[in-house]
Q: What sequence folds into this?
């Protein structure tokens, strides 16, 4: 299976701290990968390097076997979409208006909304089960509904890689499950590669093809989701003891 996102000796210093310290990682096409680790481990930083939000990194970072620094901005947006952590909720757009903004990599300042654009937006709304909310504005939605709108906007980009930074943060178990269900369907049915930062270890173990754990900017574990749930592995990642119960 082809490699769609790859890092070699990826390092980044923020202030006086090494936020990333030599990360080597290969993400394969059609994978669903969760990135876990304690606060400050470099999880969000890794995604921000991939999206060139942080540009001063050392080492290499390739997207579809091309150095990420060689992409034009819209070209990169056609390759990868990104749902950031704790996105603002005060934007007074309707659901359809916000999802439609995801089509910006495929448009020019003077181009009109095309039939293909509408089809992509409709598909994103359908996949995220937002049909009954298209006329609502973002501030009127619940946290779980709003998170699905953010994901729908990323889906509308039609990128082959989707990066998400804690997409289920602050959501109750039902809405967490709704978001994971959408991501699993996107990964399975549309074969979109998904890389997700999360603190939800159970979800990472159950939903992921592979889990990568960072600590102090380094990869300290990488393996199938089920292998994360091991006392020694969890202690190495979090420096804390866990009580494990076998899932039925």
A:
């Amino acid at each position: 299976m082809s490699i769609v996102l790859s890092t070699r000796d990826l390092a980044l210093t923020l202030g006086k701290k090494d936020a990333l310290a030599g990360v080597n990682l290969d993400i394969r096409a059609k994978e669903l990968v969760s990135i876990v680790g304690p606060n400050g481990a470099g999880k969000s930083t890794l995604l921000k390097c991939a999206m060139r939000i942080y540009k001063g990194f050392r080492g290499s970072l390739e997207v579809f076997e091309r150095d990420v620094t060689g992409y034009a901005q819209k070209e990169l947006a056609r390759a990868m979409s990104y749902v950031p952590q704790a996105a603002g909720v005060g934007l007074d757009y309707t659901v359809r208006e916000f999802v439609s903004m995801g089509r910006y990599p495929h448009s020019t300042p003077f181009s009109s909304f095309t039939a293909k654009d509408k089809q992509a937006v409709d598909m994103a709304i359908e996949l995220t089960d937002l049909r009954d909310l298209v006329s609502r504005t973002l501030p009127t939605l619940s946290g779980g509904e709003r998170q699905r709108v953010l994901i729908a906007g990323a889906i509308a980009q039609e990128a082959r890689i989707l990066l998400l930074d804690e997409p289920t943060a602050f959501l109750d178990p039902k809405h967490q499950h709704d978001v994971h269900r959408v991501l699993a369907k996107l990964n399975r049915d549309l074969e979109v590669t998904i890389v997700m930062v999360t603190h939800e270890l159970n979800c990472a173990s159950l939903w992921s093809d592979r889990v990568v754990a960072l600590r102090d900017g380094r990869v300290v574990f990488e393996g199938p989701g089920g292998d994360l749930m091991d006392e020694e592995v969890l202690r190495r990642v979090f420096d804390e003891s866990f009580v494990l119960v076998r899932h039925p």
Observations:
- Helices lie at 43-50, 73-79, 95-100, 115-127, 143-156, 173-189, 201-207, 231-238.
